[in-house]
Design goal:
Helices cover about 40% and strands about 5% of the residues. It has 18 helices and four strands. Strand 1 and strand 2 form a beta hairpin.
């Protein structure tokens, strides 16, 4: 009997140990799943773009961000305990990301888009925390102080700003009658994707004029002030300056590859595609595209784009007497063609391009001055570079060719003068306007 009891006790102990092993294994799987989910969500939120300096280590911070009052530098968000967020509890992490409150209780600069992140769900926040604590390598890099002079560097006004303009934490209601796909798209665009941080106009006090579609037609209606020198276009249904003529598939292609039949990425959006949207799932990109197509134009009287072949026919026939036409033939037509249609998904069309037809020509002027590179992505593994022309075209010549582009092929956008070009040129360095030979290498 004693031997039987001992055996029975051993069996029970073995069963308990086995049970504990199964529970531990299940927890390990859950933890791995959370880290993997958090890694994906961090890509959706494009955390690496702001928290990684050029040539620096991922998430170690140090990226300079120019503001009207001085330069601030992104912080180290690796799990380093001294310089990063390794000592953060989940509550510390959540307050920083969704509420804009630092661990010491002061307020983050709203360069951190915590007003958008306020709508991120608890579940996603826990996954992000798991990733940054267990899926990111710690980097012992000290944070850099801002270059904002005192007294503007005092943080207490930021606390007042946060209390006035930052939304309460909570996942907003999906648009009335929205499908599950559109609701998912709204959640991604309004929250983790923080699209409004660039594409929504801001008030004089620098808050976004609308945080969601329910707040009015200003949401995603395009920036009214340059952001790092670029104007963010409308993501609403405008026919000329928005996405009204883009299909859902064309929006998805743009986010996956940085190019479609209408346009190509430049400026800050290049980083979004490189670090974020190209890595998103087909389902999430479909959801974002479906949601954006539900947004009507901010201006109900929005006019349709009507192609006009007159300029193309004149150039093809050798007539370059229009102001700026000769410069266009010499410097632009080889890639963008005389009819302004470009070469699909290689050199973008200029006729009907929302960037070209925008009310503010700053982006188009800057592209002419500095050129740009359409980077490779996993689905479009070729890089194409437009050379800078600022080194050889003066302000009047740039104004003439930009005016020609904005006034041709049915664009009917306003002309540009040399003073507008000079204003953009003053924000650039000589190095940004040196010649860069075009290249079309694969890989």
């Amino acid at each position: 009997m004693k031997r039987s009891a001992v055996m029975s006790k051993s069996v029970r102990s073995l069963a308990m140990l086995t049970g504990f092993a199964w529970i531990a294994a299940a927890h390990a799987v859950d933890a791995d799943d959370s880290v993997a989910k958090g890694a994906y969500l961090a890509k959706v939120a494009d955390c690496v773009a702001c928290h990684t300096a050029k040539g620096g280590q991922e998430f170690a911070g140090g990226l300079p961000m120019a503001t009207p009052i001085g330069t601030i530098y992104s912080t180290n968000i690796t799990p380093d305990k001294q310089h990063g967020i390794g000592s953060f509890s989940y509550e510390d992490f959540e307050r920083a990301v969704r509420q804009g409150i630092r661990k010491d209780g002061s307020t983050l600069y709203p360069a951190m888009p915590y007003p958008s992140y306020a709508s991120v769900s608890d579940e996603d926040m826990h996954a992000l925390y798991a990733y940054f604590m267990h899926g990111v390598q710690p980097v012992a890099q000290a944070n850099r102080d801002t270059d904002i002079p005192w007294p503007l560097s005092m943080r207490w006004p930021l606390t007042l700003w946060r209390k006035l303009f930052s939304p309460a934490v909570g996942v907003p209601q999906a648009p009335a009658g929205a499908s599950a796909q559109v609701a998912r798209g709204a959640y991604l665009v309004e929250g983790l994707g923080h699209c409004g941080a660039c594409h929504t106009p801001r008030a004089i006090t620098m808050q976004e004029k609308a945080m969601t579609a329910a707040d009015g037609s200003a949401f995603l209606a395009g920036s009214t002030q340059p952001i790092d020198g670029w104007i963010a276009t409308s993501l609403r249904g405008e026919q000329r300056e928005g996405l009204g003529r883009w299909s859902q598939e064309q929006i998805k292609a743009f986010l996956q590859t940085g190019r479609n039949d209408h346009s190509a990425v430049f400026g800050g959006m290049s980083d979004v595609v490189k670090h974020s949207s190209q890595a998103m799932s087909d389902a999430d990109l479909d959801a974002i595209s479906a949601y954006l197509k539900t947004l009507p134009p901010a201006n109900p009287a929005d006019a349709a784009f009507v192609p006009d072949a007159a300029a193309g026919k004149a150039l093809w026939g050798g007539d370059d007497h229009a102001v700026g036409a000769a410069t266009y033939i010499d410097s632009c037509a080889a890639c963008h063609r005389t009819d302004g249609t470009g070469y699909q998904r290689v050199f973008p069309a200029l006729g009907g391009n929302p960037v070209v037809m925008g009310a503010d020509p700053a982006s188009l002027i800057r592209i002419v001055l500095t050129g740009g590179t359409l980077g490779a992505t996993s689905r479009a593994p070729s890089t194409f570079t437009m050379p800078a022309f600022g080194w050889r075209l003066n302000d009047a010549e740039v104004a003439a060719v930009v005016s020609f582009i904005r006034g041709s092929w049915g664009n009917h956008a306003g002309p540009v003068d040399a003073a507008q070009v000079a204003k953009v040129r003053k924000t650039l360095t000589t190095a940004q306007m040196v010649i860069a030979p075009p290249k079309t290498n694969a890989g």
